[in-house]
Amino acid sequence: MANQQTKTIVVTRFDPDVDEVPKTQEYEIPVEADWKVLDALNYIKDHVDPTLSHRWSCRMAVCGSCGMNVNGVPKLTCKQALSDYGDRVEVQPLANFPVVRDLVVEVDGFMEKFKKVKPWIIEAKEAAVTEGTNRQSHAELMDFKQFSMCINCMLCYSACPVVSNEPDFLGPAAIALGHRYNQDTRDHGSAERNEIFRDDGGVFSCSYANECAEVCPKSVDPSGGIQQAKLNNVLDWAQGFVVRRGEN
Amino acid sequence: MVDVVRHDVVIVGGGGAGLRAAIAVVEADPTASVALVSKVYPMRSHTVSAEGGAAAVARADDSLEMHGYDTVKGSDFLGDQDVIQYFVEEAPKELSQLERWGCPFSRNEDGTVSTRAFGGMTTKRTWYATDKIGFHMLHALFQTSMKYDNIVRLDEHFVTKLLVEDGQCGGVAALDVRTGEMKAILGRSVILCTGGGGKVWPFTTNGNIKTGDGMALAYREGVPLKDMEFVQYHPTGLPGTGILITEATRGEGGYLINSEGERFLTTRDYGVGTKAELGPRDMISRAIMLEVRAGRGIKVPGKVGEYAHLDLRHLGEEIIDSRLPFVRELSRTYANVDPVHEPIPIRPVLHYMMGGVDVDIDGKANLDGLYAAGETACVSLNGANRLGSNSLTECLVFGARAGQHAIAQSKDTSEIAESKLVAQADAEGGRIADLRGKKAGSETISGVRETLNDIMEEGTGVYRDQTRMAKAVTDLAALRARYDAISLSDTSKVFNTEILAMMELRNLLDVAETVATGAVNRKESRGAHACEDFPDRDDENYLHHSLVYREESGTRFDTKPVTLGKWEPVLRSY
Predict the structure, then answer these.
(1) Quick one: CATH architecture of A5-105?
(2) What is the dihedral of CA B281, B282, B284, B288, to 10 degrees?
(3) Same domain, B71 and B151
(4) Which of B49, B136, B143 sits opposite A63 (nearest CB)?
(5) Which residues span the domain enclosing B309?
(6) Apex CA B312: angle with CA B307 and CA B313, to 5°?
(7) A215-248: pLDDT as tens digits
(8) Chain B partners of A104 at a C-beta cutoff of 8 Å?
(9) Where in chain A is the domain with CATH 1.10.1060.10?
(10) Is the ipTM of this complex over 0.95?
């Protein structure tokens, strides 16, 4: 084929049963012009080396499984064109996570941070379903919609300089998610979440490096969300201060 | 010995149906404990990729009666009418509940939830969140499920066998993918919610995880699979990748165009009448195939074959960006086409399985303690052809019902001999250990999978005939020997995806066998099952459900009656 060319894919390999530390392995493979990085990994898995371990599923940039560092930058590999790179492409597991094996990182810590921000509607009172739906204006929807678009691919944790220094930092995706519920007119739980946000590892740990927003494959702006959450917390705290003094 | 964990209800699969079932269990009984077992993290489940919306009556110009009849007619009269009645009644409650759980539905000016038109639906009753309803529904359910400490997740656990003793399902054997250790996860009820098996076919909207696991698990225990011959080809997938371009594109007014620039659904008779692009999926997919056959397909050099165009340009950038932003993103990223300026190349693509584990209206299978819901199940809502946007609502309505019934029944089930169940899981552990790195013959997983895909595309495509379906049955039987001759390379216990692929391939082979067996036994055309040698529907001989059983001697085919009601079968035309 006229378009046929080859590339060398340099993949991080690590099997905790055998390896003390990660190593790299090079695969020279034929590639096609329209391939994503994931297509190259799947080619290796199917035709060259079935022992390679990586996660993937939807291959349409919505399930969030296939995040990896490509030439050092966090990418969703099913969305990232292989043709954007030269003859050698390095694929590594996401940074700032323990590696389970090869390109597979451990997700449980992320899930715990996620749960910490109470990512569910906290109602003022339980309403029966027979009461039907809430009303919400388009403008109210837009106040939180973009923060509901996170696919949990964890690229922002791989990019975040704070996560790398402060492993307990809630991190961009979790804070943006908590903020998403705080901004939702149907929710009444912001006081609870803001306590968590103000705690150690909360919003004030963010140094506004903005790396999270830059690597997000879904154009969510976690950094913007965190800054909004900081502001809300300062206001919330100040207000609480005034009320408490008023009570005395 | 394997690790043993005990819960009241074990749910396999953490997509729309599994999560809804889990919440239903703990809401019905706050003291109950649920194991939510998934081979991925739940937010990776394929519910995530549904785009267009979820159906439920919401508007003054609509009625339960109309939603009911649209569904019956869409099913080509093979849907069970008691099930459909229950479904349309529960649908608005379930979607209201989803709204209260925070799903960011798109809104009307007055703040009520907005609805859009969908194929085969008489009026606008599809609730949507731009064009990512599946993503938002899955995340709303998953995040809501985190409220409940008694929903215990076992993420990245692959179920290899149902544990069955004395005619009662009492749990599952599951491989912890991270450690490679087998666990016995015991519960007095098991609910299968693992989705469909689109990866049986080469060209599909389905993600890599859609390997028919729950269907195969039940089938191997002698539970019949129902109506498996009915598989849905979605009319609009991207050529090459099969990535879904939602029906909402047509709901919002998009056109299908052939190589002559003709809007063929309005100029030629494909049975969809004035519905045109909003006809049901089976008919639109056939129309596209016939256009290609007639030489009016759009040809490009290369491997993707001929296709049609989906034209959205007349909608304008504002509508596309506000209602179909994901379609624009997908078209640009995966087809190098901006739908604001160019038509999108599309062709029919395998999307959904109407068939599944035969269950009753409570989600109960023909094995005590076993339930199924969602695409895994065949509760007979969809019959021979599902209407777009009914399946997400199905996950909610029947996920909830299965959960409620599974916990109610688990209280009065007598204890099963636990040691026997654990022994079965132990044996599974041994089997998996032997399989790691096993050397057999010269076959590979990808080689056998490609042959399976070829067989099923040839034998069970949009159009079928007896010769090709019969050949699929024979070829699949022969492929078993090749499966047994696969050699494996990965000996590691940790995150061994080769072992997973091997077990998934077995599930795909089992599911494929039931599809081909169902197909060859239905000598008529109904809904999505279009036989060129039997072009008409034959109610006299085939107004029944198909059942395929696995027995020691091979497959056994049987039938069971359709539950009719107030709607008598008539010729299906629009």
Answers:
(1) Roll (3.10)
(2) 130
(3) yes
(4) B49
(5) 232-351
(6) 115
(7) 999 999 999 999 999 999 988 777 766 655 444 3
(8) 495
(9) 108-247
(10) yes
